[in-house]
């Protein structure tokens, strides 16, 4: 039985783990996807569909955790876009 | 001797292969494209003769992003009983493709173009009506003699997963990329004059924009934009100092061809990256133009 707080917790965990990506592009992509996917499905009422989405989210959480670890092992320098304060 | 029909704007790998076939005695016709980069169906129809065995037209062009009328070409080829091959490397996973409805007989797929691993690709070969192909190399005779050698399983799984993800994300990615693409174009065109878009603005894939900045030298602009991964032309022609043959095929003036930049936007591109690129682009184009005597003449109304 999934509650609103459980889903919210999953959402926040996904975001928190995604922040750990050393790669700028993967990090931004992950954050955007999580936000957009949860936003799109926020009015879902069908229990079966909701549970399928939660399964998918949990699977993706595992992927994020794995890829974060790999990325941290082989990280590179920060991109110029990560250091820009409005200079050309 | 059988003959082939292809376009002048194909990827270099196709054009080079055609050249090799010509050396073996095949007759190849390189059909011209319009100024918008799209092939004329009437021209293609006229070019198909009883000796024609294959037509090869790429789905999405890698330099200017134009989409060729694949369904129409497929229908024409099926009607004339000619095999139809399409290089779909830039199209797979980005726009919907259906080999049945588009009557495609052979399709080239590239793994790394759809965020899969490098070093893997695939070719779709139609079964009905049967397309018979000869193996690239002889050896163990796997897959009924077509593919001797061992398939790199990890890479293949990567390609499969990449395709699966692309299928699920196609609509979402397309909306996102179109938004970024429009943003880039709107910002550049509202701040700079004399900017020409190479290739049809409608029959195009939004993730590939090719712009020419008049009165600016392309290599100088590329060097100024060194923080951004851009290109004038494509990777396979980067060693050459000549302007792109694709731009030449669409009739671009030599000066404008030299001052062209290709902007590639993909699944992982961010809005910040687009804004940064636009800002730098506007700044450097303006700066380089100020150094150009031709630009001065244009400003004073002495040139058109």
Automatic annotation (TrEMBL), chain A:
One Pfam family per UniProt: Complex1_LYR
UniProt protein name: Complex 1 LYR protein domain-containing protein
Listed InterPro entries: Complex1_LYR_dom, Complex1_LYR_LYRM4, ISC_assembly_LYR
Protein family membership: Belongs to the complex I LYR family.
Location of the Complex 1 LYR protein domain: 6-62
TrEMBL record, chain B:
Protein keywords: Iron, Iron-sulfur, Metal-binding, Pyridoxal phosphate
Sequence ranges assigned to domain Aminotransferase class V in this UniProt record: 6-276
Source taxon at top rank: Eukaryota
Cofactor: pyridoxal 5'-phosphate
Top-rank EC class of the record's enzyme: transferase
UniProt keyword annotation of Cell inner membrane present: no
EC number(s) given by UniProt: 2.8.1.7
InterPro entries: Aminotrans_V_dom, Aminotrans_V_PyrdxlP_BS, PyrdxlP-dep_Trfase, PyrdxlP-dep_Trfase_major, PyrdxlP-dep_Trfase_small
Family in the record: Belongs to the class-V pyridoxal-phosphate-dependent aminotransferase family. NifS/IscS subfamily.
Protein name per UniProt: cysteine desulfurase
The species this protein was found in: Molorchus minor
